[in-house]
Design brief:
By secondary structure, the protein is α+β, with helices and mostly antiparallel strands. The chain has 16 helices and 7 strands. The longest helix has 40 residues.
Length: 448
Amino acid sequence: MTWVPYLALQYSWAAGTAFTSYAFILYAGTVVPLQGVWNCFNYIRTRQLKHAQELFSDLISSYLGFTPSSTHPFRGAETETLTFTSVSQEVTSKYAFDNYDDELLTYFSIASTPDGLEYDPNYWIASNFSLPVPPDHFPILVSSAYIPNGDAFLIAKRIKKVLRDRSIVASYDSREAKADCVTKEHVIFRIRLYRKTDLDGTIIVEIQRRDGFDVAFQADSIAILDAAEGKNTDSAQNDTFVYYQDDAFLNSLNYTQDTLDIANAILFPEDGCVMYDSTDMALSALAAHVNAKRVGKLAILVARDLLYSEKFIRLRDVIFSNACMSVSVNDNISSSTRYNRIQLLSLEILANATASLRIESTSQDLSMGQALVLHMIYLVENAEFDPRAADLACFILKNTTRSADLSTTENERLANALMKASRHGHEVHADLEMHSQQCMELMYGEIA
């Protein structure tokens, strides 16, 4: 409708006869801009519909309810526990990514995907000819590297290795030449590969941070870009943190009580309206305050009160319940992402707290209730779907006394799950491989 008048107008101008027909010029000059308006409408329409759906889901998710449970997962006592109401019985590691860059590249890029290149989230097979060529003035971020005469297959292999060594969960899309990633600190980012131009052999590696922040992400980005360029650097993550500790301040019990009181007030507001953002903030703060690598010996005091003080039984119960939730793949990817994050934060709190108490006394009884142990085994069994959750489950099992309460069948189930998780960790997640092997060593030592 619009291209034919446009081409006719161009031909008329070239022939010098365009201004002989006023009606034709008026018609062509009117409909030609409509092509751009129509393209803009098609581009914006899908984005606005998706945005409206996310706003609606955010409104619903802002008012998360809780339901009572019957058993205390850690101590096995009959107490009140809390859990989110709308969670079903399957696990997922999917995260919500805005694919606006896919829309632009699909519309403007001239690259073609080879017929034999299929989508597999566990493998990244890149080809130079399949990489998109970004259009002119396409905004490439500063966090990128330009690799002259690069080999896309080799670059993707290097990036996959550094993600594995740093225990960054990734889902690969070979057809779109991208990887969607989540760090242990819950930073969500995307890695994209481009060709600079159609004739140039330069390959561009771009890192797009989408959500979350942590100081370790800068080191992750540098390691990924260095690996893509083929630099010989240590790709393993350094978990050393610098913190200041005052012994006089450490001996004060007010700080630990205040820390848990604040978290308790956020998770259990007087008006009963539990918001997702406040829940996320409270759990993130607790995960940091029971991490000895971040706050030193203070984490031992906070962990002891959190796991054993009767004052914080409700706080403890909601953490256990969240750790035992199962997330489903449903139509609302944003909601499943949020539930997954709540579960991971709760598992992180338990992992850090049990590790901190082990620093104080390796003989301290940290036995878990049967329900919590069985759910940890379930998470390990599903390591392929959520490596980070399985890694935290292995870490918790490693720090607790578990096998004494398990039957022979359950011990065999755990051993098989750990071996499977170790093999999967060897491929995609270094921490999962290490912690699952440590669990197996402890199990076989106890059996012997």
